[in-house]
Structure formats: structure tokens, C-alpha cells
Amino acid sequence: MRVFLRYSTLMAFIIALYSCEGGVKYADKYGFLPGNDALANSEAFQRCLDGGGKIVVRKEGVYDVCRTLLLDSCTDLSFADGVILSRAKDPEGVIAKHVFLNRGALTREYNEDISITGLNIRCNDLYNGTDIPPIVGMSCQVGFFYIKNLKISDFTMLDLPVHDFGIQICTFEDATVENVHIEGMKDAVHFGPGKGFVVRHGIFKTYDDPIALNAQDYTTSNPEMGWIEDGLIEDCVDLDDPEHGTTGFFVRLLAGAWKDWTPGMDIQSSGDAVVSEGRIYRSNGPKVKRNYTSTEQPTHLSGTQTYSDGITWTMSQDRNVCHSCGVRNVVFRDIHLAKKRHVAICLHFDHDQYSRSYYPYAEIPVQSNIVFERVYVENEIPVLIQCRPPQDSLIFRDCSVGSSQIRILDAIDAPGMRYDTTLVRLERINSDSPSELVYAPTRPVRIISD
Fold this sequence. Notes:
The chain contains 2 helices and 37 strands. It has helices at residues 2-18, 38-49, and strands at residues 20-21, 24-26, 53-57, 61-65, 69-71, 75-79, 83-87, 100-102, 111-117, 120-122, 140-160, 165-184, 189-191, 194-206, 211-214, 228-238, 251-254, 256-257, 259-260, 265-268, 270-276, 279-284, 291-294, 304-306, 312-317, 324-325, 327-337, 343-348, 368-377, 383-387, 393-397, 400-402, 405-408, 422-427, 430-431, 438-439, 445-449. The protein has 2 domains: 29-255 and 325-449, Pectate Lyase C-like; 259-317, no CATH class. It is mainly beta. The protein is globular and about 65 Å long. The longest helix has 17 residues, at 2-18.
């Protein structure tokens, strides 16, 4: 056995050496080739990806893949023009959970320095498979969870299915997505908590949100919760889509707050959160109108468990534990809103029988410093900005908004919620109805206009 292991290690080293030229790993030399069987291709590509390094897919063509491909730290992956990764089922009908995922996501350990250039994915209506252990809240084609220094550029996906985000990034530091074209039915670029991000040069046509900054979300839509900070969304276009319409916004910014667990708490079936023994737990039952009285404290260390009181809890996070979250210090610049929407950009609270962002008497999440520069309304959009959570400031510069309004909505009916004054600063705004531009029937608002 000892001799065999030494021989296999030597052979792996020889294969890797043969497959590299000038420090570059070429995927075709590992057997990753257009026209190959999807399973063979997935296994070959994973061998190439293992250990990271500079990796190039250089042969033009369509590559079938059927496994989640895991990326290690220090990976520089690039695809030549004409390369398409096409999702397929494996020989036993198994569907991959994702196309790409960083390996550390499985153990909540940070990966660093990952770059992907030129990726073009054909989804073929395949999503949400079972080939790796599930990460509750990661529902995407390309996912990064616990990631530092990520760059995705020249990315194309034109058939995003209805139940998966295109790119999902959660618990991150420094993430850039640029030169991206995504069309389909779900969120194109979906962020969970993190700090330092850029979405630049984006073309979007999606039924749901092209960009989501969801500090809090459904249990099944974010694996962790926390503040999203220090971002730039620049030079992006929201294309019109009369055929499908929309259920979302160009950008959704979602805040939330929750409390420590106490006996007798009212818990909704889906989406409520509590802090218990230094961990955050999320109720993870069906999205139906049902409330429970919590009598058993959630204490399990990982995964999902149903307790004697009927509540199903998922242990969401055991680090970076907080009691509120939202979005702050984000600039939107050079945004073209060409899609017909009722609301273009929504600063949002869920507050219905399916999900509530704010638990009564929780810490109040005050979002801050959201700036809009050169935003252009190019279709019928009655509401440019709709704001429901507490917000300290909204700043608008050099925007052309037509007849759209900025709406600061009434307070949600939740005990303990309090709203201080929101500053709305307007600088060089081109509006068809300047006197009706800001609508705030009950919330305290201070307007400064040039």
C-alpha cells in the first residue's frame, strides 16, 4: 500500500507537470474538452481546478458539465472566446447544485484571491441540484460564501432559471463583478453580508431583481445575515422586457432586525431569526401563514432541526453574530432604467405573513449614506426610489427622473419601531414635477434642494 501511494503521488505530479506550460494549467490537457461526456468533463475539469493556479480553457466549443466545480484560493481562471459551459444531468439523472462554488463555502472557511474571466454559462433550466451537501441559503448558479478578493469579469448568462440566482456572494471582503450580461427569471447578482464591492458595466434583463443587496432575506435565500457596506454600482442598464414583465426591482436593499430567544416568543413559520447561545437561528418552515409559540430553545450546533413545539430551526451563523443589519455607504452611478417597473429601487422591509424583517422591539436597523449619481429614468416608472426602513440620508446628484417620485413610505406597524428624520439632498435634478418629486406623507423628512 505504501508503494502504491508513492507511485500514485508520483503519477499525479507527472500529469500535473505535463499539463502545465510556463506555469499555466490548460484544461484540455486534463481531458476537459468540448463534446465530451458531461461526467468525464466535470471530473477532468475538477482535477485541473484542484489547488488553484493560473488555469486556461482555450479550445472554443460547448462543454457539458454535471457536477459542482469547486474553486480553491489563488485561482486565476480564464475562458477563451467561444467557450460555453452547458449544464447537463449526469448519467443517473443527478443535477449539480451549482456550476461553481468556492471550496471553503462547504466548511465556512475563507478562500482568497479568486478571479474568473470570460465565463459563459448555459443553464438549460437546471438548478438547485443535490451533488454536494446543501448550504441552506445558497441558491445560485455561481456561488461564493466566505470569500476575500474575488473578481468576476466578462460573464454571460442568458437563460437564468426561475429558482436560482445567477451570481451569489455572501460573507465577503472585496468583491468585483464587471462586464456582466445576465438575462432570465431570478436575481442576477445577489449579495449577502460583506464589505467592499463593485458591480460595474452590467447589462441586465431579469424578471426578478438584477441586483439584490439583501442584508436579511428568507432563510433559503441567504446563508448568513449582516451589514452590506462600502459599495459601488456603476454603468448598469436595466433592459426592458415587455414579454415577461417583472416581480422585482432593479435593485432591492433589504434590512432586518431580530432579538434574543425567550420562551413564549411568537415565531412565524418562515424567516424569523433569534440569537441563542451566541448563534443565529432562522425559522425554516414552509412559507405559509402560520405562527408558533416557541417553548423550546434552539441549541443545535449545525444544520436544521424541528423542535417539540413544531418550529423548524436552521443554525445560520455562529460568528459575526449581530441583532440588526442593512445597507450603508453605497453609490449608484450612471444607471439607465429602461425597464417598465412600478418601483425601480426599493429600500425594503418584508412585513407580511411569509416574512417579517423587523421583529417587535428589536434593535432598529438604520441604513445610511445611499447616493445616486446620474440615474436616468427611460421608461414608465412611477416610483424611482421607495424607502420603508429607517434611513438617515438619501443623496441625488445629476439625475433625470421624468415624472418618477421619491417615496418615503409610512412606518411599518411593528411595536418598537421608531423613525428619525431622513435627509433627502437633491442636487441638479431634472424632474417633470419638482414640487411632487418627494412624497413623504407621515415620515419625518428634511429636504435640501439646490
